[in-house]
Structures are given as structure tokens and as C-alpha cells.
Amino acid sequence: MSTPTQHSQDLLSRIQPAQGGREVLDPATGELVGRAPEASVQELDHAVARAKAAQPGWAARSDEQRSATLHSAADTVEAHAEELAQLLSREQGKPLNGPNARFEVGACVAWLRATAEFSLKPEVLVDDDSGRAVMHWRPLGVVGAIGPWNWPMMISVWQIAPSLRQGNTVVIKPSGYTTLSVLALVDVLNSVLPQDVLIAVPGRGDVGEALSRHPQVDKIMFTGSTATGKNIIKSSADTVKRVTMELGGNDAGIVLEDSDPTSIAEDVFWGAFINTGQTCAALKRLYVPESLYDQVCDALTEVAAKMPMGVGLDEQNVLGPLQNKAQWEIVDKLVTAAKDSGARVLLGGTPDAEAPGYFYPTTLVADIDPHNPLVVEEQFGPALPIIKYTSLDQAVEWANELDFALGSSVWSSDLDRAEEVASRLVAGTTWINKHGAVDPRMPFGGARESGYGLEFGVEGLKEVSQPHIINR
Prior knowledge:
alpha/beta; Aldehyde Dehydrogenase, Chain A, domain 1; Aldehyde Dehydrogenase, Chain A, domain 2; 2 domains; 7-stranded mixed sheet; 16 helices; globular
């Protein structure tokens, strides 16, 4: 098992309060990780004022200078990758290996570098005898970023990088569950950023609400639950600030009859169980044709049974605990309801109540009613319902009937047919023969109650910019 390095401990000491603060416990072991500071609303006001004062100077830098600064930010995150990954593993619970802590820090580097290379150039709209009109993209001002606990570092970078690239400054409020991880990331980034361009303000819900209401905050970017997102939208309404909402998901995957169960099993597994299922755009309900049902169930069970779950700092593990007790209870409640309804548990389903940490075993549930709570409610954990269908039209109808529409996937050996089925699904993104494969070059966002606005790529830059048309 890895042990925290001295560099990791040094980083932790820089972000902890000199005294007081809130205890942060490892969700895998219950051991003390450190103490998180908690700011007041008055401290948030001060942070916003500093960010607002710093913004004109940052915006005055050239496009090339801001790009170079983001590349420097990527370099310094990469240089501190191991200590960041260790702290993330201890606080969030995710293992170092697999698509987890080291992967997440690597994604921070990749997104910073990719965003540094995107650029919004002025666009000539009209240039003829009637006149000339050019659309420019100006910074909004101060962006308020409110992030989640499941991918705290990576999603923070999704909010920070485009905002800074376009000349905004950022005040970020970390989740109360993963405060230290985000503070550590910001500490590393601020070693190369100008003063007050990026400020982290940890705090309770009143701080987040104050940020969303703040009259000097020009934009809110939020990733998290739909319920919290609705509250933020309401809080932001009085100041008519821009918002980007990446909210809850209950992503459907549809397997077509021409699929090879063995060849897709591992990709389906990771589509569902990446970060131990704690991902908005994870595959959360799988629809399988009757002709392949038993084969898919067997192939998935074989793959899932081989994936080691345990303490994150143990190098062999690729699945970890649920991050917090509340989420563990949601997963347990939904799986229990499925079992009580007569659904068949292929793997897992019975947690060890005496074991330390918030571990829930990797769980596959078959022969389940398509409207069982485990299917229609977002479980956000390591439990996948597998639903049998006899009609593709019925599977598409089931996939589209929920209020959530973040992602979806189609699994088939016939790519043209898969694309035809994909076109019938309601979602922000539909993947073919993969799931949750986000890319910094490709815009990402939800439909219905999974949110609105786009992140990533040039479209993501537009979301943190004010279009300004000069017409002469």
C-alpha cells in the first residue's frame, strides 16, 4: 500500500487552517485526513471584490499570454501530480490506479493544455455594400464556480480553464465533501497564476448561495444534482447572471442484437462503474435484447467479479468506497428495493455492515422491472440494473421516458445501425460502443433536467464570454 509522501503532507499543511476547521475523514478507513477551513459569507464578499479588481488586468493580457499561462498551469499540475493524486484518493476515496485519482489529475493537465490551444477569433458577419459587422467575444467578468465531490479536481478545471482563457477571473467554492482536494489544486495553480485571478472560498451552503446571488458575479458554473441546480438558478435570477448547469443523469445504454457480449463487456463495465459509479454521465441502466440477455449478464458478471475494490492507496485496487454515508444509503436503499421486488442479483447486493468505510460491493441486478426505482432513480454508485427487452422500439421508449437526458449509448457491431438508433435517443451526447468518453475538444452538456449550457472546446469558451457585435 502507498503511504502519503512528504510532498503530499507539505501540500496538505499549506491549505489547512492554523487552528480549527472541519475534520476530513477518509471514506475508506475513517482515518483523519486533515482539517478543512470554512469561510464566511463576509470572506466570500472580500474574495469577489479581489477577483473583480484583478479581472481587468488579466483580461488586458493578450490571447497568447493567457494561453501560455494555462500551459504553465498544466506543467505545474503535472509536476505535483502524485501528491495531488494521493490527497484526492484519501479524501474522495477513489483508488490511485484505474480510471481514478492519477487518471483525474492527468485529465486536469490534459484539459488545461487543450483549453490553452482553443481560441475565439472575431467573426465577420457582414462585409458588403451595406456595411461591416464583426462579432467579438469579451470576458464576462467574475465567474463563480461551484463543483461536486465525485471528480472534484477535474471538474474544477473544466470550470476554471475556459473562464481564465477568456479573460475572466474565478471564485470557486469546493464541495464540502472534497474541500481539501480543490484547495490543493488551487494552491498549485496559483503558483503560476497572477494574484487574485483564481480564489477558492470553502464554506457551507450559505456561501454557495451567496456566490450564486452575488451582484458582482457575472456567471455561475455548477456541476451537481438537479435539485441543487434548480436552487442555484433561482438564487441567480435576481441578478440575471449567466449560468451553465451540468446536472444529474440517469444514462441509458442499449445493446443491439448484433453485439458480441464478450467483446463489449469490459467497456460496458467501465461505462457504468468508472469512479465506482459516482459519475453523472455513467451508464446507469442497461437495456439488452432477450436473444442476448443471458450472455450479456454472464459476460458482465465475469468482468465485474475480477475488479478489486478496497482502500484507495492500495495500488491493486480499481474500485473504492462511496464518498459519503448519505450516498451509500441511497445505493443501499435502491438495491434493497430491487431485491424486495424479486429482481435477481447476479453479483454483490449485500454490503458488509461491520467493515470500515462506505464500501458497497460491485452489484449487478437482472430480471428487473423497467420502472423499478433502481432503474428510474439515479443510483450514483456501483449498482447496475440490466433490463430485458423484446422490442427495440420499447427499449428506445424506456430510454427516453425519464426527465434526465445527459448521456446515452448504443452498442452494436453495425455502426450505421447504431447511429440510426442513437439519433432516436434524447441526450446531450450519445456514444457508440463506449460510454462517458468525454473529450476536451467536444462540447458536452445535458438536455431536459440534466441541465443546459455547454462545456469544452470553442463552444465552451463562448459560454464564458459576452458576444459583442460592432456594426458600422
